[in-house]
Amino acid sequence: xxxxxxxxxxxxxxPRDVELTIAALNEKNLANEVVVAxxxxxxxxxxxxxxxFVNENGLPAIILLDIKMPKINGIEVLKDIRSNPKFSFxxxxxxxxxxxxxxxxxxxxxxANSYVVKPVDITQFIDAIKSLGxxxxxxxxxxxEHL
Length: 147
What we know:
Number of strands: 5
Structural class: alpha/beta
Number of helices: 5
Strand order of the largest sheet: 2-1-3-4-5
Helix content: 40-55%
Shape: globular
Order of helices and strands: EHEHEHEHEH
Strand content: 5-15%
Mean pLDDT: 84
Number of domains: 1
């Protein structure tokens, strides 16, 4: 039986954090293709198949979503994702440098699956992403997008 390997969507405006995240995912030899959106607006373009993402197929296996970004912040992106039944089963992991309690509470209220504060230590960051990627992209099962 063929199982489609869904993409991992990274939404982060920090090229350094994106690079580290991709390197960590690659260390786990995940077969998932990684798509990067540099801000919340691009993330929504990807999900709604607009702009440069007009030819994208399917939905991502997981969204790794930063909070503090230009144009549309991660909280607003999460709110949009959870308000659309088509996206409601996509696991959304907030991966952010925000230690603010209000961001943590708001993320969970809006339906985030997890909230991970980016460690300052590079080794900790890579280890955290490796674990997240393997669990959410491979082990975790979500309902089909055709519900």
